[in-house]
C-alpha cells in the first residue's frame, strides 16, 4: 500500500473503511460548489464510490486519489492524487479538503507530495482542471507551477480552465 509523507501529512491509499470520511467530504459545500455533486448520500454509496473510483484506479493504473491525514493525529482532512478522466488527454491532479482545513497550507503540501510521486512514475506532463471562479484553487495550481492553458468544454454546456505542468 502506497504511503507518501510530508512534514505534517501522510497520504495513503484509501480503503472502504474511509467511506464515512468520503461521505462527509463529497457532501461538503466546497466540494459541491467547486467539484460537483457525485450523488453520494449513503454510506453504501460512499463505499461503492471508493470501490469504483480510487480502489479501481490503484489496480488499473497503479495510482489514484489518496487520503490526506494529519501526521500527528491520523485525522483525515482531504484527498489528493492522480486521476484518469475520459474527458482529458492526460493524467489529472485532483484534490479536495474539508472546509475546516482550508487555508492552512495542507493542499499545497499534499499536492507537492503527489507531484513528486508522479515524477517517480515517469509522468511527463500533469493536467489540472478548475472552475474559473475558484480563485483559491487557481492560486494553488499556479503556486505549484501549473500554467493555465485556457478554457475547455466540460459537462453539459459548461467549461473549466485547463492547467498543465511539465514534470
Automatic annotation (TrEMBL):
InterPro entries: Acyl_CoA_acyltransferase, GNAT_dom, N-acetyltransferase. It comes from the Bacteria. The keyword Transferase applies. Residues 9-167 form the N-acetyltransferase domain. GO terms for molecular function: acyltransferase activity, transferring groups other than amino-acyl groups. Keywords: Transferase. The keyword Mitochondrion does not apply. This is GNAT family N-acetyltransferase. It comes from Shewanella insulae.
